Q: What sequence folds into this?
């Protein structure tokens, strides 16, 4: 029979150092081949970071989960320890995703669930549902919190911190989680022209790129001149820039080759002649740093301000992507082509999230169908006068 390895709690002690701060060290036993046990140790952190022993023990908990990997965890393993191990071993590499996940963990999930055993949370998913319902956050944000908790419990089962079972977060509902709090703003052609007149370069050219290609702002900031083939009239979307840092694209479907309209290519060539030269060949380098711009200040200082001045509301970079999708609809582009141009992984995203048509294009499409029934739509003279008066 196989002998079950004991759960290793380890012991914690403060190690003196000749130079630098003293450090907390977790010491534990490890069984090797032939059931030979050896003593091992791992640093938890400095005494400056964890002044109290209780703080060091708490920080060491996630390390104990890794040390006991493959063994059934102690039933008191907490959500905080699970989250810390996830951050250390499984956090996605994409910078923007890491930033979002860490924000959700540190601002919302850990303050509420840090001390609770994961087993007790798994037994009471309704407790999570109530908590999400009480948060004064957007429905979409609450859905993201639930999704991250779902991911954490998947890893809890993978790491044998829980028995493999149905993920308890599957039972949690976020009412209206897939619905938008308000309908996204879509611009008319006239409104776009009016906005464009309020932007100086390079922001004016950035906005033209956003509207002509429907790119995400992170993709616009990451464009390099090597991405454009002016002979073949194509532009390659290969990377993103988030908070000034080069990042991976949102998904593999985001990386694609897009067409360039000749007149639009001419605008880019005109900007190339005036663009600051950077060693990496950025299309929109900040002249002070020759690095990509940060998108948020441009949105706050120019796009939002211009939108309010024209009475368009609180518009932003994503307004142009929504508008691009709606204009594709208005020009009769097939849904499959729209999905490719928007670079969505699922056509449902193209249809549901970005599927707000202009009323005028809806009316024109509807009229073409109704006109087929004109012979049976004869209006009595009295009612015809009533309709025309409206």
A:
């Amino acid at each position: 029979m196989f002998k079950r390895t004991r759960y290793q709690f380890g012991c914690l002690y403060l190690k003196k150092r000749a130079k630098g701060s003293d450090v907390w060290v977790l010491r534990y036993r490890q069984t090797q081949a032939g059931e030979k046990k050896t003593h091992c140790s791992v640093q938890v952190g400095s005494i400056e970071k964890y002044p109290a022993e209780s703080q060091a023990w708490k920080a060491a908990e996630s390390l104990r989960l890794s040390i006991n990997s493959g063994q059934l965890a102690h039933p008191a393993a907490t959500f905080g320890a699970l989250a810390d191990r996830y951050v250390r071993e499984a956090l996605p590499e994409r910078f923007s995703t890491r930033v979002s996940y860490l924000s959700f963990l540190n601002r919302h999930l850990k303050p509420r669930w840090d001390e609770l055993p994961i087993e007790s949370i798994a037994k009471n998913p309704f407790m999570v549902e109530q908590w999400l319902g009480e948060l004064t956050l957007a429905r979409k944000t609450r859905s993201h919190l639930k999704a991250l908790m779902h991911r954490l419990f998947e890893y809890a089962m993978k790491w044998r911190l829980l028995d493999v079972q149905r993920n308890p977060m599957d039972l949690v509902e976020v009412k209206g989680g897939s619905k938008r709090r308000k309908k996204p703003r879509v611009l008319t052609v006239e409104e776009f022209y009016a906005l464009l007149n309020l932007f100086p370069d390079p922001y004016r050219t950035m906005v033209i790129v956003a509207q002509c290609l429907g790119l995400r702002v992170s993709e616009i900031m990451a464009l390099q001149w090597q991405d454009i083939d002016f002979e073949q009239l194509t532009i390659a979307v290969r990377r993103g820039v988030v908070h000034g840092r080069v990042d991976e694209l949102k998904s593999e479907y985001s990386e694609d080759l897009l067409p360039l309209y000749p007149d639009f290519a001419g605008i880019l060539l005109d900007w190339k002649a005036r663009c600051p030269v950077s060693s990496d060949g950025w299309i929109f380098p900040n002249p002070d740093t020759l690095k990509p711009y940060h998108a948020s200040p441009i949105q706050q200082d120019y796009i939002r301000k211009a939108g309010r001045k024209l009475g368009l509301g609180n518009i932003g970079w994503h307004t142009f992507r929504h508008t691009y999708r709606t204009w594709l609809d208005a020009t009769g582009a097939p849904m499959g082509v729209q999905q490719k141009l928007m670079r969505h992984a699922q056509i449902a995203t193209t249809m549901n999230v970005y599927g707000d048509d202009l009323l005028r294009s809806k009316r024109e499409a509807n009229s073409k169908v109704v006109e087929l029934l004109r012979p049976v739509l004869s209006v009595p003279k009295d009612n015809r006068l009533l309709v025309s008066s409206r």
